[in-house]
Each structure stands twice: as C-alpha cells, then as structure tokens.
Design a protein that fits this description.
alpha+beta; Fructose-1,6-Bisphosphatase, Chain A, domain 1; D-Maltodextrin-Binding Protein, domain 2; 2 domains
Length: 272
C-alpha cells in the first residue's frame, strides 16, 4: 500500500488518539506498579501495565483498522491483509516506569510496505507528545522540531543506553571508556525512544545504542529523521539490533567511525 500525505496524516491522527489514551492509562497506573515477569535476564523486567497497555493499543487499532497488522514488544502479532503494520512499544523505559521515574514513553509506529510513514512517542509524565509523518516534519506538542546545529565530536553531548546481559554491559562499558574522553559528556536516560526524541529536539547532539528492536526505534527514528538527524547502523545499514546511531550529518559520520573501530556492534571478542 502506497500512502499519500493525506493517508499518512490520517494514520498519524489515529496513532495520536490511541497513544494519548494509552499514555493516560499507563501514567495513572504507575504508582504502586510491580514486576510481573522478566524477559532476557532478571533485570529485564515487564510489568502488568506493559501487557495491559499493549492489549489496549492492539484492540483500538484493530477496531478502527481491522485489516492491519500489529507487532508488539510484549507479544501482539496480528497479521492483516492491508499492507499496513503498527509497531508498538507499550512502555519504553520499563525500569524507569517501575521506579517512578519520568523518562518512559508509549511508542506507536505505522509502516506501509515496510517503510515507516507515521510515528508517535508519548511521554505523558513529562507532558510531551512527539509526532512525525514521512516527509511531513517532526513536532513536539505541536511545535516543529529541528536537531541542534552540528558540532565536532569533542563538543557533542551524546546519549546512550545499556543492555541487560552482563557480557553485553561489560563490552558497552569498554566502548564507553574510549568514547567518554572523546566527547563533551554522556547522558543515560533509560528510554531509547525518549533519547532519540531528545536528538530531534536538540537536547542532545547524538545517540547510540546496541540491542534495540523495531518497537524501540520505529516511531522515534522517524521523528529524529524528520527533525534533520541521520539515523542508521554501521556501514550504511538501517537502524538494527547490532547498533543504532542518530546524529546530524557530519557528526553522525564522526561518531560512526569511532564506534565502528571499537566493536560497539558486538558483545566483545567472543560475543558476536
């Protein structure tokens, strides 16, 4: 299914409505939430609200567009016939959510024929609603977004995140040991989507992380790109679980070359 600008705006409007509702439900349920289960490691948690919010989003999408597909972090995998797929992270930044922190978000991306055409990142506790359509620009609370002007790597404020396995964290610490003296400073917020939107908003200059999934970057990568960032992996690859980088052109290449030489897309010499 090819989409016109009007189609993308219509899909975005649905995503915004659903993300607002999902964010409100999640925010109201944050107090007193507890761990329901773990995923890859004991520190990789999922709460009851993750699953409840994903189910709410799935139901709302299919009620309005029953022929679409839905892919969710916590298990939703509906296959439709329309060629449109909704990619959902019900709570990106679950550990932040569990600890009562503000940096978490509901993320909804809409794909048509494998290309992201609309995206919403709702950070309700912060009062921020990030939106974008392909070719239509990126916005936060209705204000147009633009990345910060390019700076040299040694003047860049760089956001990053860490995986959950001990082996991956050890390698990420080794990478960071070399990166930190080469940049202005490092920030670690705990939500990949919020970090990517921070690049779009000019609140950081760049971002990189290993271990992301399509629901982590889907909506937020479009927002960053539409704000003027380059978002991708190493050596011309698109964003992928090995490594995702976001920065304005020029800075992107500097950070890319540094990370490529450090094995930032691996879990160490024997980790792949």
């Amino acid at each position: 299914m090819s989409t016109s600008a009007e189609d993308r705006s219509a899909l975005l409007a649905i995503a915004v409505d659903i993300a607002r509702e999902a964010g409100r439900v999640a925010a109201e349920g944050q107090a007193g939430i507890d761990v329901l289960d773990t995923k890859s490691t004991p520190t990789d948690v999922v709460t009851e609200m993750d699953r409840a919010v994903e189910e709410l989003i799935r139901e709302r999408v299919l009620a309005r567009r029953p022929d679409d597909s839905v892919l969710g972090e916590e298990g939703a995998d509906e296959t439709g016939s329309s060629g449109v797929r909704w990619i959902v992270d019900p709570i990106d930044g679950t550990v932040n959510y569990l600890y009562g922190r503000e940096d978490w978000a509901v993320c909804i991306a809409v794909e048509a024929e494998g290309r992201t055409v609309a995206g919403v990142v709702a950070a309700p506790v912060r009062g921020d609603l990030y939106t974008a359509t392909l070719g239509g620009g990126a916005y936060c609370n209705g204000e147009r977004l633009a990345v910060a002007p390019p700076v040299p790597l040694d003047m860049a404020l760089v956001a990053t995140g860490f995986g959950y396995s001990a082996r991956r964290r050890a390698q990420q610490a080794e990478v960071l040991r070399t990166v930190l003296p080469r940049v202005r400073d490092i920030r670690r917020g705990g939500s990949a989507a919020v970090d990517l939107c921070g690049v779009a908003r000019g609140r950081t200059n760049a971002y990189y992380e290993r271990g992301l999934n399509p629901w982590d970057w889907g909506a937020a990568a479009l927002i960053a790109q539409e704000a003027g960032a380059r978002v991708g992996g190493l050596h011309g690859a698109p964003p992928n679980p090995d490594l995702t980088i976001a920065a304005p052109p020029g800075l992107f290449e500097e950070l890319h070359d540094l990370l490529a030489g450090l094995g930032a897309d691996t879990d160490g010499p024997e980790g792949g």
